[in-house]
Specification:
It holds the Pfam family MannoseP_isomer. InterPro entries: Man6P_isomerase-2_C, RmlC-like_jellyroll, RmlC_Cupin_sf. The chain has about 170 residues and is of the alpha+beta class. The chain is globular, with a radius of gyration of 15 Å.
Length: about 170
């Protein structure tokens, strides 16, 4: 994604820039959500998952990342100084790559205890969380744009938003 984000831009203009960049790359957005208190996301057409993976995760082979027939490609938009919930999932692992904006922070753990340590991911950085691994994505000083794919572990019941186990949430969800 070829974006130069103004760090003092408002959410609506950040989303407009990302939508234009996705259209330029011929990705079809099937859902967009700007209402999340931490930022929001774009859901990309599942049929374009191989192209999405090739563009944002070219170092991974599809055979390595595709456990089931679904990858649920998304672009996450993380607002400055906002945190997603401390969470984990029963039916998916997640792969993230910072693709634009400034750095983002990530916390990960095998237990419910959230450490103080924040791993800083620069643009181009990649991280993978296993099923059940606790994690939190954190906006740092500016907007962070993250490509995400889900590795669904149950082909009969793919993961969805109901597969989020929130251990802590700044927004009371």
């Amino acid at each position: 994604m070829n974006l130069t984000l103004s760090q003092d831009a408002d959410k609506a203009s950040i989303f407009e820039q990302i939508a234009a960049a996705l259209a330029e790359d011929n990705f079809t957005v099937v859902k967009q959500d700007q209402t999340r208190p931490w930022g929001g996301f774009f859901v990309i057409d599942e049929a374009q998952a191989p192209a999405f993976a090739a563009k944002y995760f070219p170092h991974l082979e599809m055979s390595e990342i595709q456990i089931t027939n679904k990858l649920s490609p998304k672009i996450l938009v993380v607002a400055p100084e906002k945190r997603l919930s401390w969470q984990y999932h029963f039916r998916r692992a997640e792969i993230w790559k910072v693709i634009a904006g400034t750095t983002v922070g990530v916390k990960i753990s095998d237990t419910d205890e959230e450490s103080e340590e924040v791993k800083v991911l620069e643009s181009g950085s990649f991280i993978q969380m296993d099923t059940g691994e606790r994690h939190r994505l954190i906006g740092l000083s500016g907007w962070g744009i993250v490509a995400e794919i889900w590795q669904h572990s149950d082909p009969e019941k793919p993961s969805d938003e109901d597969d989020i186990v929130r251990l802590q949430d700044d927004f009371g969800r």
